[in-house]
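Appendix C reproduces, verbatim, an entry submitted by the partner laboratory led by Prof. M.T., so that reviewers can inspect both the input and the predicted structure.
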Amino acid sequence: MIKVAKFGGSSVANAEQFRKVKNIIESDPSRKFVVVSACGKTCREDHKVTDLLYLTHAHLKYGVSYEPIFSLIEEKYLGIAEELGLKTDLRAKFDQIRSIMKKDLSEDYLVSRGEYLTAVLMAEYLGFAFADAADVIRFRYDGSIDYDYTGKMLEQYARENKGVVVPGFYGAMPNGVIRVMSRGGSDVTGAVLANILNADVYENWTDVSGFYMADPKIVDHPYQIPRINYSELREMSYMGANVLHDDAVFPVKDKNIPINIRNTNEPDNPGTMIMENCAEYDRKEPPHFITGITGRKNYTVITAVRNHNEFETGFLRRILSVFESFNVPIETIPTTVDTVSVIVAGEKVSSCLYEIIGRIREELKPEELHIEEHVAIIAIVGRAMKQQPGISGRLISEFGNNGINIKVLSQTNAERCIEVGVLDRDFEKAIRCIYEKFIKEEGAVK
């Protein structure tokens, strides 16, 4: 068995977290490939190393002294190395980075040094080989990952070493220039390794024990989701449940490799298993019809009313083209026989809302045009909802019992997700209402 284990910033924030990682790796010999992020925050007052590196680059760019900031990074890594008794010559590495900083330094190179330094220390601490992502993860010039080249490099490291540590978040172009991924990209590095190595499991170790059925900031002690499929994950992640980088799904989904979200601080907790198909497990332990509840605030709903628009070819296309011309992405489009509602993120439309309204009035000449701002969209996600008739009706009834006014209600044909729009002020109340009635009272956990 092969497991790829990725550890996020909170999992490598200090020497104590390094010790936890080592215990996790040594407890299972199948954890042969380790991916690490840059050191995260140890407390509220602390700073993420990547944030400090971006700030250092900004100071360099504008000719402001960067040394006080860069010294904080140096002290953090030197402290970890000293406390763990590591022999890596970090001062030489920092001197090398400083010498490059005096030249024409790329931002990508500088911000990648957090992952690089963490991986160098972790490799020594675990007794594993260090594989620089610049040598292993190869990007093509179009930004895609060259799996053939990356695979050859990884296979070589796998043959020659009992274990390998790879820094996440970055790789290199064919000409050797460092290129970073978007923030959280270490998740993607781990997924790429899992794909290439045909891993049995991709473990993503962080500071939460997987996904929860609702946001712990809204619902006290929500139930943990034991397993979730990729489609449900996409629905929940899009609507705000951000535990895993979105792009980390695709490399493992292609090969049906499950992702296991685990907590470095609670290693005995099995976490949440993400897989392409949960059917085999669901037959043994049927899931609750709701997998999770999530959502976002601050949407704007623009509703055009025009009698008999169903007879006018192109009406919907014309209204959507107005938003397209202002480069405003659309979230969803509830419609009835005479109305079309377009829902967009408030921040995307705030600067051009009234220009859009003017264009719609001019080009489509609706009988009525309504704007509703400060609307929250709540997504109720569950692969088992299609086996439960009347869910939408029960939701409407429960919201009515709790004095919550529904602004939007839509459901996909796949019956995997119901979206409910309420006013921002009712957002938390609505989520608690759904959780208490349909999950806690009805027993999501036997």
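The first helix runs from residue 15 to 26. Additional entries are available on request from the coordinating office.
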